[in-house]
């Protein structure tokens, strides 16, 4: 049994150097809560920092606690916190802005230049037993929503934001490029928002099989030898039309290009996945056909909608979770996520000692 002062923490020191160590239990500020962390999912960005030590201009220059897809139980509240109490189960929105800049005041806090986001250098994440977070970015979970589902609100919010940016609505014909976790949540959100047809593409058949389980109307296994023209033709034939909304959840140059080429004239291509800083795209094709190209950076004001989708039972995110580990097994959990072992989609780490775990 762990001691009361046990705050086992997963810390990334550099490339291929992830360690478990004890850290002091933090004290919440007046507007914060102390959380006994419960479930933390491994995101592709966590793996990327482990493998490459950076994502674009975000570089790991000092030891950084990993993890940002998470849920926990309120253990202590700050002096000014009125919205939560000890014992509340909450999902944690991991990024918050300065609250005073024009972006924050305008409601686009995801674009705040001083955004603090868990496990994005130079800020620590929350794969640890005890963690403090602003109370207004903690979302109380209904009793019937599990802690794991709470942790999955983070990737689900990306799907909500992507579909909102795309303008998905009743009758939309949607193409989703990539059937990783973000592609799959985008699929289920698009269906919940009224899309009449969603086609999902990927390089791996096992992920497309999951997409079918989650409600995809069609899937396309991408052949690496197929030309762009052939892929566009296949997509249009499978959908019976050109999609009016395409959401690229891969970020590879090939899918960024395909998102433009496959979208109907006057439609919208939304880019969620992030690849190289510069890519070659058929821009004149998009201009001549008035295809809107929109970017997605995380999410903004989407957690409440994501929670409503889960709590109402309209969508089921549990199927995304394929593997479970305890925090002591963090290295094995990352290896599983990194290499997709056993058909891994979402790997979940359970943080509290086993004798303290709530029934899942």
Question: How would the blueprint of this fold be written?
Answer:
Layout (H helix, E strand, L loop, with lengths): L7 E7 L2 E6 L9 E10 L2 H9 L1 E2 L2 E2 L4 E2 L3 E9 L11 E4 L2 E2 L5 H4 L10 E2 L12 E5 L3 E3 L6 H20 L6 E5 L3 H12 L4 E6 L2 H9 L4 E4 L6 H12 L5 E4 L4 H10 L5 E4 L11 H6 L3 E4 L7 H9 L9 E6 L3 H10 L6 E5 L10
Parallel strand pairs: 13-14, 13-16, 14-15, 16-17, 17-18, 19-20
Antiparallel strand pairs: 1-2, 1-6, 3-7, 3-11, 3-20, 4-5, 7-8, 8-12, 9-10
List keywords for this structure.
360 residues, 26% strand, alpha/beta, GroES-like_sf, L-iditol 2-dehydrogenase (NAD+) activity, 10 helices, metal-binding, Quinone Oxidoreductase, Chain A, domain 1, 6-stranded parallel sheet, zinc, disordered C terminus, 7-stranded mixed sheet, globular, 2 domains, oxidoreductase, Rossmann fold, 20 strands
């Amino acid at each position: 049994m762990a001691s009361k002062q046990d705050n086992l923490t997963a810390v990334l020191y550099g490339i291929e150097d992830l360690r478990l160590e004890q850290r002091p239990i933090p004290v919440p500020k007046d507007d914060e809560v102390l959380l006994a962390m419960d479930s933390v999912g491994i995101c592709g960005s966590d793996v990327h920092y482990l493998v490459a030590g950076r994502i674009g201009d975000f570089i790991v220059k000092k030891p950084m606690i990993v993890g940002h897809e998470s849920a926990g139980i309120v253990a202590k509240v700050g002096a000014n916190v009125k919205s939560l109490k000890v014992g509340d189960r909450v999902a944690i929105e991991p990024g918050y802005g300065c609250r005073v800049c024009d972006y924050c005041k305008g409601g686009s806090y995801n674009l705040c230049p001083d955004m603090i986001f868990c496990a994005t250098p130079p800020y620590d994440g929350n794969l640890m037993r005890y963690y403090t977070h602003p109370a207004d970015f903690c979302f109380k979970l209904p009793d019937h929503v599990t802690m794991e589902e709470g942790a999955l609100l983070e990737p689900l919010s990306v799907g909500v934001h992507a579909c909102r940016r795309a303008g998905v609505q009743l009758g939309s014909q949607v193409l989703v490029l990539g059937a990783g976790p973000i592609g799959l949540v985008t699929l289920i959100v698009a269906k919940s928002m009224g899309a009449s047809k969603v086609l999902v593409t990927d390089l791996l058949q096992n992920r497309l099989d999951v997409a079918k389980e989650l409600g995809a109307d069609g899937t396309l296994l991408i052949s690496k030898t197929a030309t762009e023209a052939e892929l566009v033709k296949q997509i249009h034939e499978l959908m019976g039309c050109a999609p009016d909304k395409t959401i690229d959840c891969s970020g590879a140059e090939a899918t960024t290009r395909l998102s433009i080429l496959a979208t109907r004239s006057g439609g919208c291509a939304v880019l969620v996945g992030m690849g190289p800083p510069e890519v070659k795209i058929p821009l004149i094709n998009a201009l001549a056909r008035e295809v809107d190209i929109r970017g997605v950076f995380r999410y903004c004001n989407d957690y409440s909608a994501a929670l409503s989708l889960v709590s109402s039972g309209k969508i089921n995110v549990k199927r995304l979770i394929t593997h479970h580990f305890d925090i002591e097994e963090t290295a094995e959990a990352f290896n599983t996520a990194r290499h997709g072992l056993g058909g891994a989609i979402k790997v979940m780490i359970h943080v509290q000692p086993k004798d303290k775990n709530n029934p899942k």
